[in-house]
Amino acid sequence: MATTSRALDPDSGAAAHPRTPWLRLTLHYVEMVLAMFAGMLVFGGLRALLGLTVAFDAHPGAHYLLMATDMAVGMAAWMLLRRHGRACTLEMCAAMYVPAVLVPLVWADVMSGMAFMTAAHVLMMVAMLAVLLRRRREYCH
Predict the structure, then answer these.
(1) In terms of Cα–Cα distance, which of 135, 141, 123, 28 is closest to 86?
(2) How far apart are CA 132 and CA 134, in angstroms?
(3) Inter-axis angle of helices 20-49 and 60-81, to 10 degrees?
(4) Predicted pLDDT of residue 7
(5) Quick one: CA torsion of 123, 127, 130, 134, rounded to 10 degrees?
(6) DSSP class per residue in the chain
(7) Would you write out the chain's pLDDT as a tens digit for each of its 141 residues?
(8) What is the pLDDT of residue 4?
(9) Taking the domains of the chain in order of start, what are their residue ranges?
(10) How many CB atoms lie within 10 A of CB 49?
(11) CA distances to 17, 28, 56, 115, 125 from 92, in Å
């Protein structure tokens, strides 16, 4: 008589715990946020050392685009290291730029630079979540 243990059979655990895919999605989201911040610190720091920065007060839109690029590069590096596909990586990086649609509101003095930056970060996180949910099967592994 053969018996199997859930601890020894990796496939049985996935069926027994339906929350596992959501936990994996949550962990992936956290990884992406950490990779964004790492990219912002590393690449933003390098740009600052090289004098390639733009003052936030003078040009909040340009400042945001540079920061989004720093975050996207960090995120792409981490996703490629984790062997995610190019489409997943490009979509997640594109989420960094979604808030750029708000820049004309700053130019028109409808929104302050600080309000833009706050809204941009919230919108960016929502855009990342949308990409994550859209490709949830690919991120659950």
Answers:
(1) 135
(2) 5
(3) 130
(4) 45
(5) 170
(6) -----TTT-HHHHHHH-TTHHHHHHHHHHHHHHHHHHHHHHHHHHHHHHTT----TTT-HHHHHHHHHHHHHHHHHHHHHHTT--HHHHHHHHHTTTGGGGGHHHHHTTSS-HHHHHHHHHHHHHHHHHHHHHHTHHHHT-
(7) 444 444 444 444 445 456 788 888 899 999 999 999 999 999 999 999 999 999 999 999 999 999 999 999 999 999 999 998 999 999 999 999 999 999 999 999 999 999 999 999 999 999 999 999 998 887 766
(8) 46
(9) 18-139
(10) 9
(11) 27, 11, 24, 24, 10
Q: What is the largest CA-CA distance in the chain?
A: 76
pLDDT at position 8, please?
A: 44
**Residue with token string 């930056």:** 117
Distance CA(107)–CA(79), nearest Å, equals 34
